[in-house]
Amino acid sequence: MTGKILRRPAVEELTGLSRSTIYEWMRLNKFPRPVALGARLVAWRESDIQAWLEAREPKAG
Predict the structure, then answer these.
(1) Domain count of the fold of the chain
(2) Torsion angle of the four alpha carbons 19, 34, 11, 40, in this order, in degrees rounded to the nearest 10
(3) Does some domain include residue 45?
(4) What is the domain extent for residue 11?
(5) Is residue 29 part of a domain?
(6) Considering the domain boundaries, does residue 28 fall inside one?
(7) Residue-wise over 37-48: b if at least 16 C-beta within 10 A, else e?
(8) pLDDT of amino acid 8
(9) How far apart are CA 43 and CA 38, in angstroms?
């Protein structure tokens, strides 16, 4: 199974979060961790971001 990977600008656009918020929430274990693509290159799995967004949606009821 191959999933799409997203660089930080795409993650910021999808989530509406700033760079600093993303990294702060990662530090607090409130946001998915990226995968390393190289020594200084990371990206997030789109599936991880989508799951995180869905988990944050208010439940109807």
Answers:
(1) 1
(2) 60
(3) yes
(4) 5-56
(5) yes
(6) yes
(7) eeeeeebbbeeb
(8) 97
(9) 10
Q: Which of 21, 20, 22 is nearest to 6 (CA)?
A: 22
Say which residue, 58 or 51, is predicted with more confidence.
Answer: 51
Cα separation of 41 and 39, whole Å? Answer: 6
DSSP calls for 14-30: HH---HHHHHHHHHTT-
User: CA-to-CA distance for 9 and 19, rounded, in angstroms?
Assistant: 8
- Confirm whether 61 is domain-assigned: no
Helix extents (H) in the chain: 8-15, 19-27, 46-56
Whether 9 has a pLDDT exceeding 50, the answer reads: yes
Output DSSP code: residue 59.
P
pLDDT over 50 (residue 1): no
The model's confidence at residue 2, banded by pLDDT at 50, 70 and 90, is low
